[in-house]
Amino acid sequence: MAQCCINPSILSADFVNLEAELRRIGGADAVHVDVMDNHFVPNLTIGLPVVARIQKVSPVPLDAHLMIADPDRWAPAYAEAGVASVTFHAEAAAAPVRLARELRARGAKAGMALKPATAIEPYLDLLPEMDMLLIMTVEPGFGGQAFLDVTLPKIRRAADAVAGSGLPVAIQVDGGITEETIGRAAEAGATVFVAGSAVYGTEDPNEAIARLRAAAAR
Ligand SMILES: O=C(CO)[C@@H](O)[C@H](O)COP(=O)(O)O
């Protein structure tokens, strides 16, 4: 496999000690920051002021996943705060192409996420506008859920479309990624792996990252 990025999700980290928690994942490619608004998903986490502070102290780039309503209004500010990659949900965006262009114009990579029941096909023509597709492998909202194998065909179709296009679009998967499931997602064509409990639920997060990396490459 050419590329393998492991992005730990801070949803499973200790929110009272976030700076110290970030220092525990120096071996990661980026830190996945889950922004939830209790409207698009039934959970509430952090918003722009906290993400902007994390951005200032993080040893690795930020990969923000906005599980929020009206990303057209809120997402560009995350790019302005210096977040390296900003992902919005296709189901929530009114104008995904315009929004992706606004993110890129502010220096961020543009990602578009799809919930498990959202088909990829209506969005394939938008690939040239995106840097990443995030295929949710659980229903968004909570960490610690079981990987949904029914999402594997969609990962495969997305990866095939990206390969066919020749575009440098990453395929990210998020939810239930463990040493046991990561190989199936990688085999289907995923290239960026978000893992919360499989990293922060262990004694040594950097060791867990290394084990996930090895399992993805098997
Ligand atoms: O976006 C989400 C959940 O909505 C994820 O980023 C989870 O935080 C992943 O947690 P694990 O399933 O890896 O524990």
Automatic annotation (TrEMBL):
It catalyses: D-ribulose 5-phosphate = D-xylulose 5-phosphate. GO terms for molecular function: D-ribulose-phosphate 3-epimerase activity. This is Ribulose-phosphate 3-epimerase. Belongs to the ribulose-phosphate 3-epimerase family. InterPro entries: Aldolase_TIM, Ribul_P_3_epim, Ribul_P_3_epim-like, RibuloseP-bd_barrel. A divalent metal cation binds at H32, D34, H65, D174. Substrate binds at S9, H65, G141, F142, G143, G144, D174, G175, G176, G196, S197. PROSITE patterns: RIBUL_P_3_EPIMER_1, RIBUL_P_3_EPIMER_2. Its EC number is 5.1.3.1. The gene is rpe. HAMAP family: RPE. Binds 1 divalent metal cation per subunit. Pathway: Carbohydrate degradation. Catalyzes the reversible epimerization of D-ribulose 5-phosphate to D-xylulose 5-phosphate. The active site is at D34, D174. Keywords: Carbohydrate metabolism, Isomerase, Metal-binding. Pfam families: Ribul_P_3_epim. Its cofactor is Mn(2+); Zn(2+); a divalent metal cation; Fe(2+). SUPFAM superfamilies: Ribulose-phoshate binding barrel (SSF51366).
